[in-house]
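Budget justification aside, the reviewers requested a transparent look at the raw inputs and outputs of the sequence design task funded under Objective 1. We therefore reproduce one unedited record. The lines immediately below are the C-alpha cells for a 355-residue chain.
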C-alpha cells in the first residue's frame, strides 16, 4: 500500500474503532459510577419509594470519604431497581453554629403536605443534662430535628434551630413521623436507656407545619415489656439496661397499627453476648396511645433498625442494617398478616450473600 494513503487509513480505522467502542466505554463508566448494597456503608438506612419518578431514595448518615463533604449530615443513594445505586450525595449538612454538630443518625424522609421532611438525630456532648445518672453516665443534649425541602434530593433546611423537637432535657433519638386518623402529626422516638435505664418509646404531638412540638410527650411502652428481653441483654456494672431503637409505624391492610423497633437480646445459640434484634409491636386499640403488645423478633443475626417501604411492583419490603458495626444494608420481602408482620424471604439477589 502507498505510504501516502496508509497513514490516513490507519487514522480512519482508529477513529472508527474508538467510535464503535463508545457505547461500551459509556456502559463501563456507568458501572463504575454505580454501587450495590454489599459495598455501601449503611447504618440506620431508610428508603423512600418516590412514585412520580419511579426512583428509590436511600438515606443514611453522611460518609465524608464518599461525598467529599466533611460536615455531619445526611446523604442519599438513588436507584431504579434496588440493586444498582448511584454514588451518594449530601442532601443535608448541619449548619455552622447549630445547637448540635455531631450525630446525623437515623435519617428518614417523608412526603407531607406537598413538601419533604427529613428527620435525623443530632447531639451536643458539651450541653450537659446531668453529670451522672444511676448508671454512672453523663447525659447531654441529643434529639431529632426536622428539616424541610421541596424535593427528596434536598437541600433540607431545619424548621427549628434552637433545639430538638422532643424536650431538650430528654436524651432521645430515632424520631419518625406518624399521622393519626384525625390527621394530627406526631413524632415517635426512643428515650435513651442512658437516661432512663429502661428505654422507652414515646410520642410527641407536632404542629400542623411540623415546626415544633404541640403538647407534652406520651409514653407508649418500655423495652422490658418485650417478653424475650432478659436481664443479660445489656448488662453493666450497675445492673441491666434495656434499649429502645428505631421505631417506625405501619398501618396494616386491615387497620391494625403496628410498630417496628429494635433492641438487644442475649443469645446463647452458639453466638455468645448481646446482639441487635429487629422486632415488632401492635397497638390493641389501633391508636397511637395503645396499649401496645409485643411480638416475637422478626430478624436476629445482629440486625436491626428496620424500615418499611412498598416497591414499585407492589411488594412490601423492609430495609435494615447488619451487623451493628461496619453495617451494610439488607433487604427483606415482607408479608402483611393483618395483626403482625412476617418475613417472606431475604432478597439476597439484591443485598449480596445474606451475611
Amino acid at each position: 500500500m502507498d505510504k501516502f494513503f496508509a497513514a490516513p487509513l490507519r487514522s480512519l480505522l482508529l477513529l472508527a474503532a474508538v467510535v464503535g467502542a463508545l457505547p461500551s466505554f459509556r456502559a463501563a463508566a456507568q458501572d463504575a459510577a454505580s454501587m450495590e448494597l454489599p459495598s455501601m456503608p449503611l447504618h440506620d438506612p431508610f428508603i423512600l419509594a418516590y412514585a412520580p419518578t419511579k426512583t428509590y431514595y436511600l438515606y443514611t448518615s453522611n460518609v465524608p470519604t464518599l461525598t467529599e463533604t466533611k460536615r455531619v449530615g445526611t446523604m442519599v443513594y438513588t436507584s431504579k431497581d434496588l440493586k444498582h445505586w448511584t454514588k451518594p450525595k449530601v442532601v443535608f449538612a448541619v449548619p455552622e453554629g447549630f445547637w448540635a454538630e455531631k450525630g446525623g443518625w437515623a435519617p428518614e424522609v417523608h412526603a407531607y403536605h406537598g413538601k419533604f421532611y427529613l428527620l435525623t438525630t443530632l447531639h451536643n456532648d458539651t450541653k450537659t443534662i446531668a453529670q451522672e445518672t444511676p448508671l454512672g453516665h453523663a447525659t447531654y443534649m441529643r434529639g431529632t430535628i426536622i428539616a424541610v425541602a421541596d424535593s427528596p434530593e434536598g437541600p433540607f433546611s431545619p424548621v427549628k434551630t434552637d433545639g430538638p423537637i422532643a424536650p431538650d432535657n430528654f436524651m432521645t433519638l430515632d424520631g419518625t413521623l406518624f399521622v393519626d386518623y384525625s390527621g394530627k402529626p406526631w413524632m415517635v422516638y426512643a428515650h435513651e436507656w442512658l437516661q432512663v435505664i429502661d428505654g422507652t418509646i414515646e410520642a410527641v404531638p407536632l404542629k400542623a407545619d411540623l415546626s415544633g412540638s404541640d403538647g407534652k410527650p406520651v409514653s407508649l411502652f418500655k423495652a422490658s415489656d418485650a417478653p424475650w428481653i432478659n436481664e443479660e441483654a445489656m448488662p453493666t456494672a450497675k445492673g441491666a439496661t434495656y434499649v429502645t431503637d428505631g421505631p417506625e409505624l405501619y398501618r396494616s391492610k386491615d387497620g391494625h397499627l403496628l410498630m417496628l423497633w429494635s433492641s438487644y437480646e442475649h443469645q446463647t445459640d452458639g453466638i455468645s453476648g448481646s446482639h441487635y434484634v429487629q422486632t415488632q409491636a401492635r397497638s390493641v386499640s389501633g391508636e397511637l396511645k395503645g396499649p401496645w403488645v409485643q411480638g416475637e423478633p422478626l430478624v436476629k443475626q445482629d440486625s436491626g433498625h428496620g424500615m418499611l417501604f412498598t416497591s414499585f411492583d407492589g411488594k412490601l419490603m423492609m430495609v435494615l442494617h447488619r451487623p451493628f458495626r461496619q453495617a451494610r444494608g439488607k433487604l427483606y420481602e415482607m408479608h402483611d398478616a393483618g395483626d403482625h408482620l412476617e418475613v417472606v424471604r431475604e432478597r439476597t439477589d439484591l443485598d449480596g450473600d445474606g451475611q
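Confidence is low (pLDDT under 50) at residues 1-32. The domain at 35-351 is CATH 2.115.10.20 (Tachylectin-2; Chain A). Computational costs for records of this kind are itemized in the attached budget.
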